[in-house]
Amino acid sequence: MNVLIHGFGAMGRIVEEVAHAQGVNVTAIVSPGSDELTATLNEVDVPVDVVIDFSNPALLPDLLAFGRERNIPLVIATTGFTPEELAEIETASQEIPIFQSYNTSYGIALLKQLLDQLVPLTLGYDIEVIEAHHRKKVDAPSGTAELLARAIEAKRDVTPIYERTSRREARATEELGMHSIRGGTIFGEHTVLFAGDDEMIELKHTALSKRVFANGALAAAATIIDRPAGLYNLSNLYEEATHVTHKRL
């Protein structure tokens, strides 16, 4: 498998490290604005089977154009897309296979499966989503928190609430509280709290290293290169091929 890494920040570097450890061939690294590495996708002239993208939403048009023009599958793990940008990804997936997720860890895939089963059984519980990340993360709530919110919304009629400071009223049953914590060097922690009368249930995922996301992205890349055009995510890719993901973790 010949991999192109798009974006060479902290995650791009870890993807390269993990890829080499797994024996995966990294044929190109594109780092926009770099004087030392390939700066644009148009400059790539080596064999590429799949692109792993940990870059910036502003680079999405070039990424989608590259995938379409060269018929190359994309693993998009960048966060912070607008609804319009997500729609552009979906449109491009009609021509090429695209895996898009705000979190590529196997544990989050499992957490989503647990939510699919648990949420319909907790109609008497209030649900809150709490996420914590390092001080340098710029978007809030995290893309993973939004992913979990969508999973909850699919199983229960709730409305995400992102701030309560301006409100002076009791919590409504249909609220889904969304909370963000920023500090230190926290890799990533996501908790779904079910608060009932006199008891609580918590589902929690803690990333202990960014390597878990690199492992997941490479597993997604290995799986998607054999798929037809379409939009893939934690639900319709990982759940069909969990043997691929956890063998690589």
Query: Total strand count, please?
Result: 11
Distance between the termini: 18 Å
Helix content: 25-40%
Radius of gyration: 19 Å
- Largest pleated sheet: 6 strands, parallel
Please give the oligomerization state of what you see: single chain
Average pLDDT for all residues? 91
Q: Helix count?
A: 7
Which residue ranges are poorly predicted, with pLDDT under 50 across at least 5 consecutive positions?
Answer: 241-249
Task: Please characterize this protein's 3D structure.
With 249 residues, the protein is of the alpha/beta class. It has 7 helices and 11 strands. The strands form 2 sheets. Strands 2-1-3-4-5-11 form a 6-stranded parallel sheet, sandwiched between helices. Strands 7-8-6-9-10 form a 5-stranded mixed sheet, with helices on one face. A hairpin with a 2-residue loop joins strand 9 (188-196) and strand 10 (199-207). It is elongated, with a radius of gyration of 19 Å. The model is unreliable at 241-249 (pLDDT under 50).
Task: Describe the structure in brief.
With 249 residues, this protein is an alpha/beta fold. The chain is built from 7 helices and 11 strands.
